[in-house]
């Protein structure tokens, strides 16, 4: 099998979930009441909007993640040839990590890694 | 000795002898689809009962013991119960995204099965960038979590989803870096090459201290990535009722549950393949008799044995460590694990160039 196995896997996943949901829909007789549609928040009536503002910390972490994730993508091709390139590969990656580390230190100093 | 690759080869030969190539391909695809669905369902059932039995054993109680001998059919009974439950959609929810999220979770988990070597020479797709493929696809799982949490119109769900998003993307970095350590040593991204590089010894034995550090980092990171305790911030029961799937019920909830358990299996399978040699049997130096006896055990048994050992380890964590707070969780990753795994990668590279691992 080759790349076509991905199509098989996607179809298998959709078929499995779809059939499971359909079977349960055929068996179950749904009853609709007003209370059932309410958000499950331990019985207390919901106050305010649900789609509210969230702590900015989540976005800061997402931004720092982006930098390091791109770094990781650069590392993959390097990792494959690192052993055959020898010391030059190690020296280059030390320089690369040093520059990244400066950025990381800056983010740390600015308090981006502190929660709240 | 029968092996998976023999069976698949003989099926292929029989089919191409009896049908024309197009039909052979179609029948093989259908067979593969049925096989992965079967594997998925069986894994879900086995892992759920294993989790409950292991946690019962750790807490000195019996666990499920009513359905079938020693309660081994408990998860089947649970499945029947979930089928006859009504799948509700809350009134204020975004209906399309709400119903789409479990499908995405299932598709992502299913796609991850492709490059796993279940036995020697038996893979669905031996893609040449296997490891990169795994990290690329597994990072998609955060989409289904965010989608489910956002579409539910529930504050608990939204909070759980946001926490889970921050957590999954953070721990992906150290998981990726510790996987890269093995890629540097093996010199290839292809799963079969990485397995082949361990024929004379697993990396955990050949690799000395740097590989052990990478292994520990990897286990911590994947525990966090699959939202398992002690990193189960996304569904912290005592804080967020059930986190991102609070509003899900019936079969849609079951699909999330199933995808989560199979995800645990997949990350453990990756860990077993990279660090513990996957389908390669245990050999000790020049003990001829011992090595010979180990070779008689089929490679699939080795693979599943190692994988289930790692799964047991992750279940063990759940009953040993208390849950972390979100700031402790992010501190652990950004201030400890990430610098450690970056420096460790340099150590591994130096080791690979000096050829200490040979």
Describe the structure.
The complex is a heterodimer of chains A (116) and B (358). With 116 residues, chain A is an all-alpha fold. In chain A, 66% of the residues lie in helices and 0% in strands. Chain A has 3 helices and no strands. In chain A, helix 2 (57-85) packs antiparallel against helix 3. The longest helix of chain A is centred in the middle third of the chain and has 29 residues, at 57-85. By secondary structure, chain B is an all-alpha fold. In chain B, helix 3 (74-83) crosses helix 12 and helix 6 (141-151) packs antiparallel against helix 7 (155-186). The radius of gyration of chain B is 21 Å and the shape is globular. The chains are: A mainly alpha (116), B mainly alpha (358). Chains A and B meet through helix 1, helix 2 and helix 3 of A and helix 2, helix 4, helix 7, helix 12 and helix 15 of B.
Poorly predicted sequence stretches spanning 5 or more consecutive residues of chain A = none
What is the CATH superfamily of chain A? NADH:ubiquinone/plastoquinone oxidoreductase, chain 3
In whole angstroms, the N-to-C terminal distance of chain A is: 50 Å
Mean pLDDT over all positions of chain B: 84
What is the tally of beta strands of chain B? 0
Query: Tell me, what's the shape of chain B?
Result: globular
Q: Please give the alpha-carbon distance between the first and last residues of chain B.
A: 31 Å
What is the percent of helical residues of chain B? 55-70%
Number of domains of chain B: 2
Assign the structural class of chain A, choosing from mainly alpha, mainly beta, alpha/beta, alpha+beta, or little secondary structure: mainly alpha
Which features characterize this protein?
heterodimer; A: 116 residues; mainly alpha; Methane Monooxygenase Hydroxylase, Chain G, domain 1; B: 358 residues; 69% helix
What is the secondary structure topology, with strand pairs?
The complex is a heterodimer of chains A (116) and B (358).
Chain A: H1 4-27, H2 57-85, H3 87-109
Chain B: H1 4-18, H2 21-58, H3 74-83, H4 95-111, H5 130-138, H6 141-151, H7 155-186, H8 191-196, H9 203-206, H10 208-225, H11 237-240, H12 250-275, H13 288-296, H14 299-318, H15 326-354
Helix pairs in contact in B: 1-2, 2-12, 3-12, 4-6, 4-12, 6-7, 7-10, 7-15, 10-12, 10-15, 12-14
């Amino acid at each position: 099998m080759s790349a076509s196995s991905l199509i098989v896997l996607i179809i298998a996943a959709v078929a499995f979930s779809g059939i499971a949901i359909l079977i349960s829909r055929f068996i179950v007789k749904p009853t609709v009441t007003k209370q059932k549609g309410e958000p499950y928040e331990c019985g207390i009536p919901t106050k305010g909007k649900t789609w509210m503002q969230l702590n900015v910390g989540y976005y800061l972490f997402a931004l720092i993640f982006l930098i390091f994730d791109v770094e990781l993508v650069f590392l993959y091709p390097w990792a494959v040839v690192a052993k055959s390139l020898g010391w030059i590969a190690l020296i280059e990656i030390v320089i690369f990590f040093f520059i990244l580390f400066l950025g990381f230190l800056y983010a740390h100093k600015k308090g981006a890694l502190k929660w709240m | 000795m029968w092996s998976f690759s023999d069976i698949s080869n003989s099926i292929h030969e029989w089919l191409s002898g009896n049908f024309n190539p197009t039909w052979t391909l179609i029948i093989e695809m259908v067979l593969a689809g049925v096989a992965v669905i079967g594997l998925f369902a069986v894994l879900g059932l086995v892992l759920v009962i294993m989790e409950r039995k292991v946690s019962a054993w750790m807490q000195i109680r019996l666990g499920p013991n009513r359905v079938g001998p020693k309660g081994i059919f408990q998860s089947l009974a649970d499945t029947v119960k979930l089928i006859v439950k009504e799948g509700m959609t809350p009134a204020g929810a975004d209906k399309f995204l709400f119903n789409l999220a479990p499908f995405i979770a299932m598709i992502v988990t299913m796609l991850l099965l492709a490059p796993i070597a279940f036995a020697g020479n038996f893979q669905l797709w031996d893609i040449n960038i296997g490891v990169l493929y795994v990290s690329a696809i597994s990072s998609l799982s955060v989409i289904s979590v965010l989608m489910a949490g956002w579409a539910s119109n529930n504050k608990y769900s939204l909070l759980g989803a946001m926490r889970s998003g921050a957590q999954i993307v953070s721990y992906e970095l150290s998981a990726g870096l510790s996987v890269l350590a093995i890629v540097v040593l093996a010199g290839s991204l292809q799963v079969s090459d990485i397995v082949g590089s361990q024929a004379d010894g697993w990396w955990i034995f050949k690799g000395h201290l740097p590989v052990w550090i990478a292994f520990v980092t990897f286990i911590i990171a994947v525990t966090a990535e699959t939202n398992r305790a002690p990193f189960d911030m996304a569904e912290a029961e005592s804080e967020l009722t059930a986190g991102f799937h609070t509003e899900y019920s019936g079969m849609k909830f079951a699909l999330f549950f199933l995808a989560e358990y199979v995800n645990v299996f997949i990350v453990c399978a990756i860990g077993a393949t990279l660090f513990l040699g996957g389908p390669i049997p245990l050999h000790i130096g020049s003990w001829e008799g011992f090595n010979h006896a180990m070779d008689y055990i089929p490679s699939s048994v080795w693979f599943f044995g190692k994988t289930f050992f790692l799964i047991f380890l992750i279940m063990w964590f759940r009953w040993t460590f208390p849950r972390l707070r979100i700031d402790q969780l992010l501190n652990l990753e950004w201030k400890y694990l990430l610098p450690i795994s970056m420096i460790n990668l340099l150590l591994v590279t130096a080791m690979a160039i000096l050829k200490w691992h040979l």
